[in-house]
Structures are given as C-alpha cells and as structure tokens.
Design brief:
Strand 2, helix 2 (48-51) and strand 3 form a beta-alpha-beta unit. The chain folds into 2 domains: 6-165 and 350-374, Glycogen Phosphorylase B (Rossmann fold, 3-Layer(aba) Sandwich); 172-348, Glycogen Phosphorylase B (Rossmann fold, 3-Layer(aba) Sandwich), CATH 3.40.50. It contains 15 helices and 13 strands. By secondary structure, it is of the alpha/beta class. Helix content is 45%, strand content 16%. It starts with 5 loop residues before the first strand and ends with a helix. The protein has helices at residues 15-30, 48-51, 68-92, 106-113, 130-135, 169-172, 200-211, 215-218, 232-242, 255-261, 271-280, 296-306, 320-332, 334-348, 352-374; strands spanning 6-10, 34-39, 54-57, 96-99, 119-123, 141-144, 159-162, 188-193, 221-226, 245-249, 264-267, 284-286, 310-312.
Length: 375
Amino acid sequence: MSDKPHVLLAAGGTGGHVFPAEALAQELITRGYRLGLVTDKRGKAYGGALGELETHHILAGGIAGKNIFKRLISVAELGLGTWQAWRLLKRLKPDAVIGFGGYASVPTMMAATFTSIPTGIHEQNALLGRANRLLAKRVHAVASSFADTRGLPNMGVVSVKLTGMPVRAPIAEKANTPFPRTEGDAPLGVLILGGSQGATILSEVVPAALNKLPEDIKARLDVTQQCREEDIDAVRAAYSASSIRAHLATFIDDVPECLAKSHVVISRAGASSVSEALAVGRPSILVPYPYAADDHQTYNAQAVDAAGAGWIMPQDTFTAESLAMRLDSLFGLPAVLEKAARCAQDLGRADAAKQLADLVSDLVEKQDHKRSGDA
C-alpha cells in the first residue's frame, strides 16, 4: 500500500462539475497525492488528469424534471449507488472524499458522510446546486466559487472557504495574458460561446447585432463563434452578407487562445463559460439560460455584473438592437473594457486550484492526526 495520501474525487456530468475536478486532480498529483475518481456510467471517456485516475463506476440517477415512474427508478438507483459507494469506501479507506455537485456525486458523498472519512464539496455556481444543498450540512467543508454564494444554510461547525473556481490547465496558463490593445485599427476580438444548452438565440441575435455596428467598427471585428450544427450555415451566411470576418465551429478546440485574443465574450452563464472568461481576465456579456435548474445562471451573471467584470442581459431583453447599443458603447470606450477585464481577473482567482488543494490538504491532515490519536 502506498504511503501517499489517498483522495477520492466524486464527479460526473457537465463540464461545470468535471473541469474543477480535473484542475484539482492535476494540482494534487503535483503534490504527491494518490487519487481515484468515482463517477456514474457517463464517466468513461474523460481525458486529461481525470483520464489517468483509477476510476470506479456506481449507479446514480437524477430526480428533477422526471415523471413519477422515472423518479422512483432514480431513487432506487440512488439507494443502490450509495450502497455500492459505501462498500467501495470501506475497501479503499481514503483519507478524504471530495464532491463536485451534480447527481453523479450524490451516492458517493452520501456514503462518505456515513463514515468517519473527512468530506468536502465544491460549488461552482453563485447558487448552491441541489445536490450540494442536500450535502452541505453533512460534509466537513464547503468550497465556494463566489464570495456571495446563495443557498448556503446555517452551516454551524461546517467550514466554508472561498477558493474560486478551478479551471483547466490550458485556461489557467492564459491567466496573465495582457488585454489586447484597442488603439488604431487593431482587431476587435469577439468570442461567442454557446454552452451546452440554448445556443440558438446567440446564433440569431449576435450576427444581426454586429451588422448594426458602425462600418469602421465592423471592419475591425474578428469574430469567433460556437454554433449548433443546425444553425451554422445560417450564421455563416449572415456574416458573409455583412462582410464581417468570422470563424465558426460547432466545437472550438482552442478556447484558451480565443479567450486570450478577445476583447469581449458573449455567452450563456454556465459555470464553465463564466469561470474561464474570468480566469483569463476577459469581460463578458452574459445571457442566462432561463430554464436552467433553479435559474442558477442568472445568479452567476449577477455576480459577474456586480463585480464590474461583465454585464448581464436577460434573454427577454437580448435583442439585436440592445446588444448593438451595448457593443457600440463598449468599443467606443475601451477604458471601460479594460477596467472590466481587471475586475474579471480579480474575480477569477487564478490560484483557485491551489486554494482548493489546500482545503483538501487540511482535511487529510486532520484525518492523519485522528488516526495517530487512535493508534
């Protein structure tokens, strides 16, 4: 058996849950930790640091938004998955278990709270997610991405630490990239990220808004836009008709570089999109997906807006006219963009992975002291 501290990560689902787990894994590996990943059936093709870990699959099922029959099945899967996780923890005896929200993490974290193993959860959004809400009072520590995270109960003896949102290493490497110059005829970079849900409205509104900008600004635009496959031909035609330089793709494989060269990001307000723009220090115009669970994207966008790191535009007011007015004002006052970029970098907390790893180290150290006392 290795003498290295052993930590299990419980994660799965969307990038908002997986990316911080990957960033933490990379940081803990550099510190000499031995890691394992517990996930559901979807977690079979992770790359990066997570793809290198010993992976254990258990049953997990979401309940929200399902009919009564499917809910009953999910509850049964949750119970069986918790039992599977409890047996796994009994066998592996990790020094700590860290969860990242989402229903894929619930069975493992629930099982861990029934043991004496130190536990912690990380919340990526400005509103505590349903899974983490269920676990918050049961675990030993809660890590938050925003100073004002809504939904935290009266935590009592539970430790709450503002760590920020860890991002993938290629994003973190761009954290100190200077804001692109805006003088003269320098290109004006606009990055549009659709996210995993509801990107069609961005494909409809953004090209029309950019076409309404003054000709001297249009001539300088350098647009990179993620589009749904069913929208991309129409978006390409719109930019071609406007003579706007645009690079379109259904999947952008060089997001870090695109962020670094952009002056403004237009996107949904999911945890991944928000955190990556903040980490690189780029101001964003955020259009929260109105049907996201508990409207958590609105809370994310409000946090960014309140910090001066970007601007929220609710979907019902997100029109070509309103967006064009906002962009015309920003490009006409580059000092405003530069100030927002500085605020974004401050809010992004480039050391988030290290801060979260420190929290994990504290949990492991307490476990070591307990074992030494029991010996």
